[in-house]
Amino acid sequence: MPYSTDSLVAVVDIGSNSVRLVFYEYRGSHAQPMFNEKHSCLLGEGVSEGGTLKKEAKEHVLRTIRRFAQLIHARKPNEVIVLATAAIRNARDGSSFAAELTKILGYPITILTGKEEALYAARGVLCTTYQPSGLVVDMGGGSTECAHIMSHGEVDALCSLPMGVLGFTKYYQEHKDEGLARHLTDMLKIIELPEISTLYAVGGSFRAIAKHHMRRHNYPLHVIHDYVLTRDEIEQLLQQMRHDVSKGIRLEAVPRRRYDGIIPALIVLHTLMIQSTASRILFSSGGIREGALMTVHPPKLPYDPLLAMMQAMAAPNSNPHYRCALADWILTVLPCDMHDERLVRAFCWVSDVAMTVHPDYRAEYAFERMISTLGYGLMHNQQVMLALALYHRHRAKLKFKHPAIDLLHEHQRCFAFILGQLADMAYGITAGCAHILNDYTPKRDPHTDDIFIQSHLGNDALLDPILDNRREGLRDAMRLWLKHGKK
Fold first, then answer.
1. Angle, to 10 degrees, between the axis of helix 288-296 and the axis of helix 114-126?
2. β-pairing verdict for 8-14 and 18-27
3. According to the model, what pLDDT value does residue 233 have?
């Protein structure tokens, strides 16, 4: 069933560094960005609390908002959310400028307080990351927000520091590395940072750091969301970047507009890691825009961003009853803990995503389709494992080559093979009919690890002889997987 404009939401984000319009299409409880345009307007440049906005920056924002207003009018979304952050919040003429923009857009502008901005950033992490717990740091152009996500999803908006990448960059140019680190440490004395293990980095400057590190190390997956760096890796990267800049070596994958601010942003991250005792940073593509959506349209609890994304990605004509039955069917023979079971259920929602593609291309199409998703609710190795399982849903070739597969251990590759081949076996028996699938149960011989199918009704007519050809590969993969500690 096609989605109507009733599911379309526009979010306009008027930040201190840039102004952005995103159209999100709701598919179930998953908000899929369908259009994303950003203009670097530098509205917060030179603005401190009580100062005024620069004329040139205001004119750039006005031109951008006029364009956005026309696009919104043309797309006719069901709902429009307009947010403004530090530059408009702090400027003496911020309220009057917001009123001017409201007249152009035709929609009211919500000027977020610092703590509201911190809360929205944390909610953006909550709706895109699986069971996050730690310190969320959102560095914009004019301010930096900190929030604590606790183990059960509660959020404590800790503070809004009156300095973002524009201010930190200026301070760094005047006082260098140690001066900036000391200044930030002094700023943080007003709050008590929680002792956490994970710091969630939100904002374009932080994403630029992740992208640069990926390029520097030839990382095989171009998905920034949930990319992880340890404190040691952050310290090593800071040394490497200082060296490269001092020698005039170009920092690869860093946009020109981010160039001056990337080392100050990295110093901010490193200082926050030290102050909060965090051992790793997880980069998030979820932020205040996604947090605003979650605030206006809170999902039903419990919420899993992975399952929401997979349900939205599922082939529109496939049977939801079959997807659920398939997961239960596979789990009878594939012993899983709760984390692997979650991946199995997510896989089953999209196991037929390539069925409209020519048979010769289904395996590669399914792999690329999964590996190029937003990756919500997934660590990178899990995303690659699901992509490989979708490949094996259509092809039994064990030695499929793709650079991203290097992120997997051998037992993860075996798990993907078993998962894909069991789904292929089930579809071959039933043609996607849930009531037929319920009449057959897969069994594993505990002595030989052979997989065989048992009919409850004694009906073997649907057990095509071709299934025998799959047993050998499944048995070998099962043995390897079980050898690595699965029971």
1. 80
2. antiparallel
3. 98
Give the chain's residues under pLDDT 70: 1-6, 48-50, 461-462, 464-469, 485-487
pLDDT of residue 30: 93
The pair of structure tokens assigned to 373 is 């998703």
Please give the single-letter amino acid code of residue 462.
Answer: L
CA angle 462-466-469, nearest 5°?
135
Q: What does the pLDDT read at residue 28?
A: 84
Q: What is the pLDDT of residue 69?
A: 98
The residue with tokens 């031109």 is 63
Q: At 473, give phi and psi (nearest 5°).
A: -65, -40
pLDDT at 4 (0 to 100): 42
Task: Fill in the DSSP letter of residue 197.
Answer: S
CA nearest to 180, candidates 165, 195, 158: 165
Query: Could you tell me if 136 and 146 are in contact, meaning their C-beta atoms sit under 8 angstroms apart?
Result: yes
Instruction: Say if residues 296 and 83 touch (Cβ distance below 8 Å).
Output: no
DSSP string, 87-121: HHHHSTTHHHHHHHHHHHHSS--EE--HHHHHHHH
| Beta bridge pairs of residue 146 | 137, 159
- Output the six-digit token pair for 310: 């997979």
In angstroms, the Cα distances linking 440 to 55, 328, 411, 425, 433 are 72, 12, 27, 11, 12
Read off the pLDDT of residues 91-119 as tens digits, 9 standing for 90 and up.
999 999 999 999 999 999 999 999 999 99
Query: Would you state the pLDDT for residue 5?
Result: 46
DSSP string, 75-87: H--SEEEEEE-HH
Distance between CA atoms of 74 and 70, rounded to whole angstroms?
A: 6
- ∠254-281-152 over CA atoms, to 5°? 135
CB contact at 8 A, 49 and 320:
no
Element (H, E) at 246: helix 231-246
d(CA 196, CA 275): 10
Spatial distance between the Cα atoms of 365 and 61, rounded to a whole number of angstroms: 41
CA distances from 132 to 129, 386, 432 (A): 6, 21, 35
Name the pTM for this structure. 0.94
User: Rounded to an integer, what distance in angstroms lies between the CA atom of residue 33 and that of residue 124?
Assistant: 14
The CB density around residue 56, as the number of other CB atoms within 10 Å, is 11
Give the Cα separation of 23 and 36 in Å (integer): 7
